Amino acid sequence: SIPIAKQLASIKVLGKGSDLEKAFATAALVYNNSADPEGKLSKAETKSLLQTQFRGFIQGQENKPKYQEIISALDEESENKLDFEDFMILLVSLTLMSDLLQEIKNVKTTK
């Protein structure tokens, strides 16, 4: 497997891309590297990906009802798979409820 940083470097337009563009490209690459040939993730794969790649945002959220609702939906036995759009909505939802978001908001932007 080719490291994400190397995959990003191979996308010429991102060489001068913004931090935000690179962040979204990274999310897309992480998703694509885990997706099946149809470009989708099973719920189990999604949960595993969150636990390995999004740990900082989900850590400590276990007792929040919305988090439990999201994880319960991923635990359900179902053939439903997530496409990239659903995956990004899930990431945004988890980010908005995370304690880490507040910490990010408190980061000083000036010296």
TrEMBL record:
GO terms for molecular function: calcium ion binding; calcium-dependent protein binding; transition metal ion binding. PROSITE patterns: EF_HAND_2. It comes from the Eukaryota. Transmembrane segments: none annotated. SMART domains: S_100. CDD domains: S-100. Residues 62-97 form the EF-hand domain. This is SNTAN protein.
